[in-house]
Specification:
Low-confidence stretches: 1-47, 53-61
Shape: elongated
Distance between the termini: 33 Å
Strand content: 5-15%
Strand order of the largest sheet: 4-3-6-5
Largest sheet: 4 strands, antiparallel
Length: 325
Amino acid sequence: MDVNAGLCSRHAALICHPTLKNCAYSGEKMNTTIRAGSAFIAAAFTLWATMAMPSAAQDAAAPLDPNAIVATVAGNPITNRDLDFALADLQEQLGQVPPAQRRAAALMALIDIRLLAAEADANGIDEQPEFAQRLAFLRDRALHNAYFNEQVVEAVSDDDVRARYDAEIASRPAENEINARHILVETEEEARAVIEELDAGADFATLAQERSTGPSGPQGGDLGYFTRGRMVPEFEAAAFELTVGEYSKEPVQTSFGFHVIKVEDARPVQPPAFEQVAGQIQSRIFRERYAALLDTLRGNTDVAIDDPDLKAAYDAVNPGAPVSE
């Protein structure tokens, strides 16, 4: 059982573990209690913010000794490292607690965990088969996360992310974006009449305001800058054939009607700044290295799925994964 379950009624989702609702050890009665406790989420946060005593923010320049004892429960120490574990595990639930009060909230949760854990030991819950299975799962998950952090997360450096960014930018084909206006009308005859007025020297933006039925009409038909792939194919093909300052001499038909298009400007597409996409690139590298790590491990490990229906479902979402018959 995830011991955070019993904390729900006291602290609601403030310290209720996100995986609790799927806890294999909890029955329907516990799930009902958890759902009821969730109704107090907003009240719990409000109560905490209202009643918590002000506390001084920890000096970021003075790191805490991870082995320093901050509290004891029945003679058993709670260290800064224990608090860090609790803060990491409960970060989603503590997100609405003011930063200066999060350590106190985590300590409150940890003390409650220790108290109930001691009672559970005294009542022999740790010897129950279901608890042992749950504990084994949690141990495997913690080891999985620790190994992933060590072999993947910590192994990806800032230089790795920058190198991937540079390589992707270098491999991108040169591409232009254009700034265009258009006049949208219902019939081909109307479009040809607009072209005749333009040939006679009429101002394109003024005609768009007067004649266009499209939403950009009041703005003189201005569509802003766009690249290939942003417009319907017929419109895109016609627009990108025009040079700057040129308008289409034939109406362009799309599902919206008939267009007369003018290109106002063209410029090379600028790649996104490194700072804008560094997080996305880092996450992509994480996924790639995680997948590669698992592919290696699966290839070196005998995996057998005995349930035929489950195996069929597994194979459907993991094509090519080595699984023994």
